[in-house]
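Worked example

This section walks through a single chain of length 146. The input is the sequence exactly as stored; nothing has been trimmed or padded.
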Amino acid sequence: MGAPGWVPDDELRRVESVSVKDGTPTGGFRLILVDQAIGWERAVRVQHGEEGWTEVKCGDVSGKVARTNPGIKYSDMYVKYKGLPVKLSLWAPGSIGFWNPIKDIIIQPSDFQKYDGWSYYIYWANHDDESYFKNYQNQIKANNLI
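Given that input, the structure is written out below as tokens.
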């Protein structure tokens, strides 16, 4: 856990999530974090049970530039099921460089079939354009990212 810092209460207003059945291999799901390229870094940490975490991160410093839109960055990973609950933790930078948890999404083993073979997109807009990803046309998918 990061040290406490200042995070706006309305940070979740900028987050949109979409699941797409797109040929992702079964046995897990593809997690794709999408952010505007000139904005704060954002991260989603992935943890299986009590194991250590890995993360996808993008923003002005990290991530890959989208193929069809240089104003968008993304980071992705395949999350393989291990029979343990999967926790997706959304993190944002707070004051003086501390990272802060925003929300946890827990996927229980009994719910794996709902995500199996899907791509799970988390779109995270900037503070000055928080409705950007609420417009479906701005929610670009893998074929336009990679």
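What to look for: The helical segments are 112-115, 142-145.
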